[in-house]
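pinned: reference chain
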Amino acid sequence: MQVNKIRHVQTITRVARLLGEDEDWLWDVATEMDQEDGLIWGHGPGEETVMAFTDFGIETLTDLVQIHKSNPGLLKRWAAPE
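pinned: its C-alpha cells
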C-alpha cells in the first residue's frame, strides 16, 4: 500500500507572490510541468480548479522560470515585441 508523503502544497497565487512573478505568466510556464515535477491540481465546486505545487514542484518551477527568463521567446505570448 502506497502512503502519500505530501504534507502540504502551495497554490500558484502564493508561489507567484513568493517568487515575485506575474501569476498569469507563471501559469503559462507551469503548464509544462507534470505530476512527477511536483504539480498538483485541486478541484473545487463546479469547474473550479487550482494549480498547486509541492516543495519539489516549487524548486522545479523556479528552474523553469530561469530557463524562460534566459529565453523569453519560449513563451510567445509573453515574448518582447520584435
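why pinned: Helices lie at 12-19, 23-30, 55-70. The mean pLDDT is 88.
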